[in-house]
Amino acid sequence: MIQPGQTYRSADPSSGPRIRITYLYDSGPNPHVHAVNADTPNGFRQIPVEDLHATATTRDGAPRRTGYVQETT
């Protein structure tokens, strides 16, 4: 379950900073989150919830190449 305060890393290690979820809009036709860079308060962006993943692999076991993967704490 997506919650504010969670951190995610890019599924492609060569692109993008880690992000921290600041707000979840889970109602309506286009659910999304507000996120900032995890290490600084800069870089505000909106990300569709469909781009946030709990695991680094797909259902078939292949590594994810797009989106963001939740970091464990």
Provide structural commentary.
With 73 residues, the protein is mostly beta strands. Helices cover 0% and strands 36% of the residues. The protein is built from no helices and six strands. The chain starts with 6 loop residues before the first strand and ends with a strand.
Looking at this protein, list some descriptive labels.
mainly beta; 6-stranded mixed β-sheet; about 35% strand
Task: Give the rounded overall mean pLDDT.
Answer: 92
The main sheet orders its strands as: 4-3-2-1-6-5
What is the alpha-carbon Rg in Å?
A: 12 Å
Please state the structural category: mainly beta
Give the amount of beta strand, in percent: 35-45%
Count of domain modules? 1
Give the number of DSSP strands.
6
Looking at how many chains there are and whether they match, the oligomeric state comes to: single chain
Shape: globular
Tally of DSSP helical segments = 0
Sequence of secondary-structure elements: EEEEEE
Uncertain residue segments: none
Amino- and carboxy-terminal Cα gap: 15 Å
Main beta-sheet strand count, sense and barrel state: 6 strands, mixed
Fraction of helical residues: under 10%
